[in-house]
Amino acid sequence: MESTPSEEPSSPLAAASFPLLVYDYGYPPDFHQAMLSAADMSMRTLQVHELCNYTCLETPHGLVLMADTVTSSGWCCLWNPQTGEKIALPAMEKMLPERCRCLLSDAVSSPDCLVLVHTFGEPELMFCRLRGGGAWVTQSYDIGLCQIPGSQTPPKKKYITGMAAVQGKFYFFETPDVLQVFSFVQSPEPHLELATCFDAITPRFTCDDAPRTATVTLSYLLESCQELFLVCLFYRGCDFERLEEVAAYRMDFSEQEWCKVTDIGDRAFLLGSANFAASCSATEHGLKKGCVYFANDFLGDSNDYHIFDLKEGTRELVGPNQDIPVLTRKPFWMVPVAM
Protein backbone atom coordinates (compact mmCIF):
# COMPACT_ATOMS: atom_id res chain seq x y z
CA MET A 1 0.00 0.00 0.00
CA GLU A 2 1.43 3.35 -1.00
CA SER A 3 0.87 6.56 0.88
CA THR A 4 -1.30 9.13 -0.81
CA PRO A 5 -1.33 12.84 -0.04
CA SER A 6 -4.21 14.33 1.91
CA GLU A 7 -6.98 16.21 0.20
CA GLU A 8 -5.62 19.44 1.69
CA PRO A 9 -2.09 20.86 1.10
CA SER A 10 -1.29 20.18 4.75
CA SER A 11 -3.02 19.09 7.89
CA PRO A 12 -4.86 21.77 9.92
CA LEU A 13 -3.01 20.28 12.89
CA ALA A 14 0.46 20.66 11.35
CA ALA A 15 1.30 23.60 13.61
CA ALA A 16 -0.11 22.02 16.78
CA SER A 17 2.17 20.90 19.63
CA PHE A 18 1.49 17.20 20.10
CA PRO A 19 0.37 15.36 22.15
CA LEU A 20 -3.14 16.81 22.12
CA LEU A 21 -6.10 16.09 24.36
CA VAL A 22 -9.09 16.32 22.05
CA TYR A 23 -12.61 17.30 23.11
CA ASP A 24 -15.29 16.42 20.53
CA TYR A 25 -18.56 18.32 20.81
CA GLY A 26 -21.56 19.39 18.75
CA TYR A 27 -23.96 17.61 16.43
CA PRO A 28 -23.93 17.06 12.66
CA PRO A 29 -23.13 19.10 10.69
CA ASP A 30 -21.64 21.30 13.41
CA PHE A 31 -19.06 19.02 15.01
CA HIS A 32 -16.10 20.84 16.54
CA GLN A 33 -12.89 19.84 18.25
CA ALA A 34 -11.30 21.74 21.10
CA MET A 35 -7.67 20.68 21.37
CA LEU A 36 -5.44 21.17 24.37
CA SER A 37 -1.68 20.74 23.95
CA ALA A 38 -0.14 18.91 26.90
CA ALA A 39 3.19 20.42 25.85
CA ASP A 40 2.51 24.15 25.97
CA MET A 41 -1.13 24.25 27.24
CA SER A 42 -2.23 26.11 24.12
CA MET A 43 -5.90 25.68 23.17
CA ARG A 44 -7.41 25.63 19.68
CA THR A 45 -10.99 25.08 18.53
CA LEU A 46 -11.57 24.05 14.93
CA GLN A 47 -13.37 21.65 12.65
CA VAL A 48 -11.10 18.86 11.48
CA HIS A 49 -12.61 17.31 8.36
CA GLU A 50 -11.43 13.81 9.18
CA LEU A 51 -12.76 13.86 12.75
CA CYS A 52 -16.06 15.41 11.73
CA ASN A 53 -16.91 13.12 8.82
CA TYR A 54 -15.45 9.71 9.62
CA THR A 55 -15.25 7.24 12.46
CA CYS A 56 -11.75 7.64 13.87
CA LEU A 57 -9.80 5.37 16.20
CA GLU A 58 -6.59 6.80 17.62
CA THR A 59 -3.60 4.46 18.04
CA PRO A 60 -0.59 4.51 20.41
CA HIS A 61 1.63 5.02 17.34
CA GLY A 62 -0.06 8.37 16.64
CA LEU A 63 -1.73 7.34 13.37
CA VAL A 64 -5.52 7.29 13.31
CA LEU A 65 -7.69 4.62 11.70
CA MET A 66 -10.31 6.45 9.61
CA ALA A 67 -13.35 4.56 8.34
CA ASP A 68 -16.47 5.49 6.37
CA THR A 69 -19.30 4.13 8.52
CA VAL A 70 -22.04 6.17 6.80
CA THR A 71 -22.06 4.52 3.39
CA SER A 72 -21.52 0.86 2.53
CA SER A 73 -18.23 1.51 0.72
CA GLY A 74 -16.06 0.07 3.50
CA TRP A 75 -13.42 2.71 2.71
CA CYS A 76 -10.73 3.16 5.37
CA CYS A 77 -7.17 4.37 5.79
CA LEU A 78 -4.51 5.32 8.32
CA TRP A 79 -4.31 9.09 8.74
CA ASN A 80 -1.34 11.07 10.01
CA PRO A 81 -2.87 14.10 11.81
CA GLN A 82 0.46 15.94 11.82
CA THR A 83 1.05 15.84 8.06
CA GLY A 84 -2.35 15.01 6.60
CA GLU A 85 -0.88 12.00 4.82
CA LYS A 86 -3.16 8.97 4.38
CA ILE A 87 -2.16 5.33 3.87
CA ALA A 88 -4.77 3.32 1.99
CA LEU A 89 -6.08 0.11 3.57
CA PRO A 90 -8.26 -2.68 2.15
CA ALA A 91 -11.99 -1.92 2.22
CA MET A 92 -13.81 -3.26 5.27
CA GLU A 93 -16.48 -5.85 4.55
CA LYS A 94 -18.31 -5.02 7.78
CA MET A 95 -18.83 -1.89 9.83
CA LEU A 96 -16.50 -1.05 12.68
CA PRO A 97 -17.99 -2.13 16.02
CA GLU A 98 -19.51 0.68 18.05
CA ARG A 99 -17.03 0.12 20.89
CA CYS A 100 -13.53 -0.90 19.91
CA ARG A 101 -9.87 0.08 19.91
CA CYS A 102 -7.13 0.06 17.27
CA LEU A 103 -3.47 -0.98 17.56
CA LEU A 104 -0.53 -1.32 15.18
CA SER A 105 1.71 -4.34 15.73
CA ASP A 106 4.92 -2.49 14.80
CA ALA A 107 6.20 0.79 13.50
CA VAL A 108 4.61 1.75 10.19
CA SER A 109 8.00 1.31 8.51
CA SER A 110 8.00 -2.40 9.38
CA PRO A 111 7.14 -4.63 6.41
CA ASP A 112 5.16 -6.89 8.76
CA CYS A 113 3.01 -4.18 10.36
CA LEU A 114 -0.56 -5.25 11.15
CA VAL A 115 -3.56 -3.01 11.84
CA LEU A 116 -5.73 -4.63 14.51
CA VAL A 117 -9.13 -3.69 15.93
CA HIS A 118 -10.39 -5.44 19.05
CA THR A 119 -14.00 -5.19 20.09
CA PHE A 120 -15.33 -4.34 23.53
CA GLY A 121 -18.34 -6.49 24.37
CA GLU A 122 -17.59 -9.64 22.41
CA PRO A 123 -14.51 -11.80 21.69
CA GLU A 124 -13.76 -10.66 18.15
CA LEU A 125 -10.76 -9.23 16.32
CA MET A 126 -10.40 -7.55 12.93
CA PHE A 127 -7.02 -7.13 11.28
CA CYS A 128 -5.27 -6.51 7.98
CA ARG A 129 -1.70 -6.17 6.78
CA LEU A 130 -0.49 -2.66 6.14
CA ARG A 131 1.50 -3.86 3.13
CA GLY A 132 1.30 -6.84 0.86
CA GLY A 133 -2.37 -6.72 0.03
CA GLY A 134 -5.04 -8.99 1.44
CA ALA A 135 -8.41 -8.24 2.91
CA TRP A 136 -9.49 -7.55 6.46
CA VAL A 137 -9.83 -10.76 8.48
CA THR A 138 -12.45 -11.15 11.21
CA GLN A 139 -11.58 -13.69 13.86
CA SER A 140 -13.21 -14.79 17.10
CA TYR A 141 -11.26 -16.11 20.08
CA ASP A 142 -11.99 -17.99 23.30
CA ILE A 143 -10.51 -16.97 26.64
CA GLY A 144 -13.23 -18.49 28.79
CA LEU A 145 -16.41 -17.35 30.48
CA CYS A 146 -17.17 -14.85 33.22
CA GLN A 147 -20.10 -14.37 35.55
CA ILE A 148 -20.88 -11.67 38.07
CA PRO A 149 -20.71 -13.23 41.57
CA GLY A 150 -24.19 -13.85 42.91
CA SER A 151 -25.82 -13.21 39.54
CA GLN A 152 -28.48 -15.57 38.20
CA THR A 153 -27.73 -14.70 34.56
CA PRO A 154 -25.84 -17.23 32.41
CA PRO A 155 -22.05 -16.78 32.09
CA LYS A 156 -20.86 -14.66 29.17
CA LYS A 157 -17.81 -15.01 26.99
CA LYS A 158 -14.88 -12.94 28.19
CA TYR A 159 -13.38 -10.36 25.87
CA ILE A 160 -10.15 -8.39 25.82
CA THR A 161 -10.34 -4.95 27.44
CA GLY A 162 -6.69 -3.91 27.36
CA MET A 163 -3.95 -4.87 24.92
CA ALA A 164 -0.46 -3.70 23.97
CA ALA A 165 1.63 -4.48 20.89
CA VAL A 166 5.36 -5.09 21.37
CA GLN A 167 7.68 -6.16 18.55
CA GLY A 168 4.88 -7.65 16.48
CA LYS A 169 3.07 -9.49 19.28
CA PHE A 170 -0.14 -8.51 21.05
CA TYR A 171 -0.20 -8.92 24.85
CA PHE A 172 -3.30 -8.98 27.04
CA PHE A 173 -4.52 -10.33 30.37
CA GLU A 174 -6.53 -13.56 30.20
CA THR A 175 -7.00 -13.21 33.95
CA PRO A 176 -5.47 -10.61 36.27
CA ASP A 177 -2.50 -12.94 36.80
CA VAL A 178 -2.15 -14.66 33.41
CA LEU A 179 -0.65 -12.90 30.39
CA GLN A 180 -1.60 -14.13 26.91
CA VAL A 181 0.08 -13.42 23.57
CA PHE A 182 -1.32 -13.27 20.04
CA SER A 183 1.09 -13.77 17.15
CA PHE A 184 0.37 -13.39 13.44
CA VAL A 185 0.50 -16.60 11.39
CA GLN A 186 0.36 -16.48 7.58
CA SER A 187 -0.28 -20.17 6.80
CA PRO A 188 -2.53 -21.90 5.92
CA GLU A 189 -4.71 -18.78 6.17
CA PRO A 190 -3.78 -15.45 7.79
CA HIS A 191 -4.81 -15.57 11.43
CA LEU A 192 -3.80 -14.57 14.93
CA GLU A 193 -2.68 -17.49 17.05
CA LEU A 194 -2.57 -17.69 20.83
CA ALA A 195 1.15 -18.28 20.89
CA THR A 196 1.79 -18.62 24.60
CA CYS A 197 0.57 -17.70 28.05
CA PHE A 198 2.35 -17.46 31.36
CA ASP A 199 1.69 -16.52 34.95
CA ALA A 200 2.54 -12.91 35.74
CA ILE A 201 1.08 -11.84 39.05
CA THR A 202 -0.50 -8.40 38.79
CA PRO A 203 0.91 -6.09 41.48
CA ARG A 204 -1.36 -5.38 44.44
CA PHE A 205 -1.57 -2.29 46.61
CA THR A 206 -0.37 -2.86 50.14
CA CYS A 207 -0.62 -0.66 53.21
CA ASP A 208 -0.84 -1.09 56.97
CA ASP A 209 -4.62 -1.44 57.01
CA ALA A 210 -4.99 -3.18 53.63
CA PRO A 211 -6.63 -6.29 55.12
CA ARG A 212 -9.46 -4.11 56.40
CA THR A 213 -9.80 -1.91 53.32
CA ALA A 214 -11.04 -2.86 49.87
CA THR A 215 -8.91 -1.67 46.98
CA VAL A 216 -9.58 -1.38 43.25
CA THR A 217 -6.89 -1.34 40.56
CA LEU A 218 -7.08 0.17 37.09
CA SER A 219 -4.46 -1.43 34.85
CA TYR A 220 -3.02 -0.23 31.53
CA LEU A 221 -0.70 -2.24 29.28
CA LEU A 222 1.56 -0.27 26.94
CA GLU A 223 4.70 -0.46 24.85
CA SER A 224 7.64 1.87 25.42
CA CYS A 225 11.00 1.60 23.67
CA GLN A 226 10.06 -1.92 22.53
CA GLU A 227 9.42 -3.11 26.08
CA LEU A 228 6.15 -4.08 27.76
CA PHE A 229 4.97 -1.94 30.66
CA LEU A 230 2.04 -2.02 33.05
CA VAL A 231 0.70 1.09 34.79
CA CYS A 232 -1.53 0.53 37.82
CA LEU A 233 -3.75 3.10 39.52
CA PHE A 234 -4.58 1.91 43.02
CA TYR A 235 -7.79 3.20 44.59
CA ARG A 236 -8.74 2.87 48.25
CA GLY A 237 -12.34 1.70 48.55
CA CYS A 238 -14.69 0.89 45.70
CA ASP A 239 -15.88 4.38 44.72
CA PHE A 240 -12.77 5.47 42.71
CA GLU A 241 -12.59 8.72 44.67
CA ARG A 242 -9.42 8.10 46.69
CA LEU A 243 -6.39 7.36 44.51
CA GLU A 244 -3.59 6.05 46.72
CA GLU A 245 -0.79 5.38 44.28
CA VAL A 246 0.18 5.31 40.61
CA ALA A 247 2.91 2.81 39.81
CA ALA A 248 4.68 1.55 36.68
CA TYR A 249 6.09 -1.93 36.09
CA ARG A 250 8.32 -3.37 33.36
CA MET A 251 7.90 -6.96 32.25
CA ASP A 252 11.03 -9.03 32.86
CA PHE A 253 10.47 -11.82 30.35
CA SER A 254 13.41 -13.86 31.64
CA GLU A 255 11.73 -14.12 35.06
CA GLN A 256 8.17 -13.65 33.77
CA GLU A 257 7.37 -11.06 36.39
CA TRP A 258 6.47 -7.38 36.70
CA CYS A 259 9.31 -5.25 38.09
CA LYS A 260 8.40 -1.92 39.63
CA VAL A 261 10.18 1.09 38.13
CA THR A 262 10.22 4.71 39.26
CA ASP A 263 12.56 5.88 36.51
CA ILE A 264 11.27 5.48 32.95
CA GLY A 265 13.97 7.73 31.52
CA ASP A 266 13.04 10.39 29.01
CA ARG A 267 9.54 9.03 28.53
CA ALA A 268 6.03 10.12 29.40
CA PHE A 269 3.08 7.72 29.50
CA LEU A 270 -0.34 8.93 28.33
CA LEU A 271 -3.44 7.07 29.50
CA GLY A 272 -7.03 7.65 28.42
CA SER A 273 -10.45 6.09 28.10
CA ALA A 274 -11.06 2.68 26.49
CA ASN A 275 -7.71 1.51 27.92
CA PHE A 276 -5.74 3.77 25.60
CA ALA A 277 -2.08 3.88 26.61
CA ALA A 278 0.90 5.33 24.75
CA SER A 279 4.48 6.43 25.34
CA CYS A 280 6.52 9.24 23.81
CA SER A 281 9.72 11.17 24.37
CA ALA A 282 9.22 13.84 27.03
CA THR A 283 12.08 16.13 26.00
CA GLU A 284 11.24 16.04 22.31
CA HIS A 285 7.59 16.87 22.87
CA GLY A 286 7.72 19.29 25.81
CA LEU A 287 6.35 16.95 28.47
CA LYS A 288 7.52 16.26 32.00
CA LYS A 289 9.80 13.24 31.84
CA GLY A 290 9.07 10.27 34.05
CA CYS A 291 5.40 11.21 34.39
CA VAL A 292 2.05 9.57 33.72
CA TYR A 293 -0.58 11.77 32.05
CA PHE A 294 -4.00 10.37 32.95
CA ALA A 295 -7.17 11.63 31.23
CA ASN A 296 -10.10 9.39 32.07
CA ASP A 297 -12.77 10.88 34.31
CA PHE A 298 -15.09 7.88 34.25
CA LEU A 299 -17.13 9.11 37.22
CA GLY A 300 -18.02 12.61 36.09
CA ASP A 301 -17.74 15.21 33.36
CA SER A 302 -14.45 16.86 34.24
CA ASN A 303 -12.23 17.92 31.33
CA ASP A 304 -9.10 18.03 33.49
CA TYR A 305 -6.28 15.50 33.48
CA HIS A 306 -3.73 14.38 36.06
CA ILE A 307 0.06 14.35 35.87
CA PHE A 308 1.71 11.82 38.19
CA ASP A 309 5.48 11.97 38.75
CA LEU A 310 6.59 8.36 39.25
CA LYS A 311 9.92 9.22 40.91
CA GLU A 312 8.78 12.06 43.20
CA GLY A 313 5.34 10.62 43.96
CA THR A 314 3.68 13.98 43.30
CA ARG A 315 0.55 14.73 41.32
CA GLU A 316 -0.83 17.76 39.49
CA LEU A 317 -4.29 18.54 38.11
CA VAL A 318 -4.42 20.57 34.91
CA GLY A 319 -7.01 21.31 32.26
CA PRO A 320 -8.35 23.69 29.63
CA ASN A 321 -8.56 27.40 30.41
CA GLN A 322 -11.95 27.78 28.73
CA ASP A 323 -15.40 26.24 29.04
CA ILE A 324 -16.15 23.37 26.67
CA PRO A 325 -19.69 22.40 25.61
CA VAL A 326 -21.14 18.96 26.37
CA LEU A 327 -18.93 16.33 24.74
CA THR A 328 -20.06 13.72 22.23
CA ARG A 329 -17.35 11.30 23.43
CA LYS A 330 -14.81 11.19 26.22
CA PRO A 331 -11.65 13.29 25.72
CA PHE A 332 -8.98 11.33 23.86
CA TRP A 333 -5.26 11.61 23.22
CA MET A 334 -3.68 12.20 19.83
CA VAL A 335 0.00 11.47 20.30
CA PRO A 336 3.05 12.24 18.12
CA VAL A 337 3.39 9.88 15.18
CA ALA A 338 6.06 7.20 15.55
CA MET A 339 6.98 5.97 12.09
TrEMBL record:
InterPro entries the UniProt entry points to: KIB1-4_b-propeller
Superkingdom of this protein's organism: Eukaryota
Protein name: KIB1-4 beta-propeller domain-containing protein
PANTHER family for the chain: OS05G0143700 PROTEIN, TRANSMEMBRANE PROTEIN
Sequence ranges assigned to domain KIB1-4 beta-propeller in this UniProt record: 37-309
Native source organism of the sequence: Urochloa decumbens
